[in-house]
Amino acid sequence: xKLHTVRVHRSDENLAREDQLAxxxxxxxxxxxxxxxxxxxxxxxxxxxxxxxxxASLGRAPVVAARGQAEAHPVHPAHPVHPTPSAPxxxxxxxxxxxxxxxxxxxxxxxxWAAWANGVAVRELDYHDTYxxxxxxxxxxxxxxxxxxxxxxxRTGAELVRGIVTGYEIQIDLATxxxxxxxxxxxxxxxxxxxxxxxxxLLGLDTATxxxxxxxxxxxxxxxxxxxxxxxxxxxxxxxxxxxxxxxEAVDRAMRGQTSPTPIYEGEDGVIAWLLDGxxxxxxxxxxxxxxARRAILDSYTKEHSAEYQAQAWIDLARRLGEAHPxxxxxxxxxxxxxxxxxxxxxxxxxxxNDPQKYDxxxxxxxxxxxxxxxxxxxxxxxxxxxxxxxxxxxxxxADTVALWRKVTTAEDAEWTRRYHSxxxxxxxxxxxxxxxxxxxxxxxxxxxxxxxxxxxxxxxxRAQYIQKFRTLAEGVLDPAEIERFLDVAQRLPQLTADxxxxxxxxxxxxxxxxxxxx
Length: 519
Description:
Blueprint (H helix, E strand, L loop, with lengths): L1 E6 L13 H10 L6 H20 L4 H11 L28 E3 L2 E5 L1 H13 L7 E2 L3 E2 L5 H11 L3 H21 L13 H13 L3 H13 L15 H21 L15 H5 L6 E6 L24 H13 L9 E8 L1 H7 L15 H4 L3 H11 L10 H4 L2 H7 L2 E5 L1 H8 L10 E7 L4 E6 L14 H12 L5 H12 L28
Helix pairs in contact: 1-7, 1-8, 2-4, 2-18, 3-4, 4-5, 4-9, 5-6, 5-7, 5-9, 6-7, 7-8, 7-9, 8-9, 11-14, 14-16
């Protein structure tokens, strides 16, 4: 990897295009590099993972609404090009306009709207992969827009893999170096550029075209983090989907010769100067050198539980504590519970956020999955975590849960913050230390560094776990034959022809009808 110094430049400095970060990202995206075997295997895992959580969310209101919007934008309304995943259209030459598939239903749809609908489905349950560094991210959000374009443009599985590898690489490299949340900018500002870069790799576009698409995608995906603050709304799932949709549209415009604000990162009225660290800022952004393998996807990690990533380890610890000390489940036995953890966990999903909604039993699901006091309490009492039952209103409102929940607080611990930001995989951590004071005067202390499913955890996820996650979440939603068909196609991803890419969709026997809107 090579570190690139990125700083603000006055307009009269005339920063050369080739010296701009967007150009350097585009150079990475336009270089034809074959992925390593380990990287290919992980791409397959993440395609399965995305589909698993999308299937589980097919009936949820944000997904239903987004799917309805996509259905209103078919490519060929009179002639659906993908009647079923097992019988795709034969018209799949490069640069064909085949349309893209949408999770749950048949048909070929406009790629930007398919990216939108599938992006919402993937993100709705907050249950897929993550990468945490200077910024946090869900790099699996790159897959829906890149896959949608691959299907629409008639690309092969191998080309799709290369595009996804680029999307992961760029988002993770940006998240490693540039903090957005420190300035209350939503993390999807890194997703617009990464998805545009990944689509550029997929399509084999030249550096100049990808450069323009990256600039447009960044310019149009910067928004505040209010979508993840206080009473969190259904928009939380839409924010990354919008970034993917915008990336598709940006690539389309760039291919038509349209240009972007330049320099988008370094300009004196650009992103760094006014949205991030200001005119005196400087970042060291890592990017692969020419000829270097793109391996960033291997640094990301998925979720065993449907909750904010910083909650994953705490769920595992809470389950163990509840089993070892069943008396902790009764609030009458507990005076207080303090989770000593990282800055991010304390201030974003902990009591340091100062959001009363994090202790509100009537709060939205989106709010509860960003409340570590709630999550720790329920995992402790139930000894389990479920993407539906654990968030049910009747579960959140249970009297003994509310009583115990309000005794749980968080505190920032400098050592856990340091480990959160460590670049050493052996010590990087997302957990912390819990101190529980009991009514009888005794104290229980325990700690956990990473989730059980983390690569450094007690039970790291491998292909078998990804497949089991898909089977579990698809049970009762898809027909058994459809489950097996999808898993077969997904595991053959690098060998798929353009004709077979439609098979990366799943079709449910029935889906909820979308409410009416404008379209």
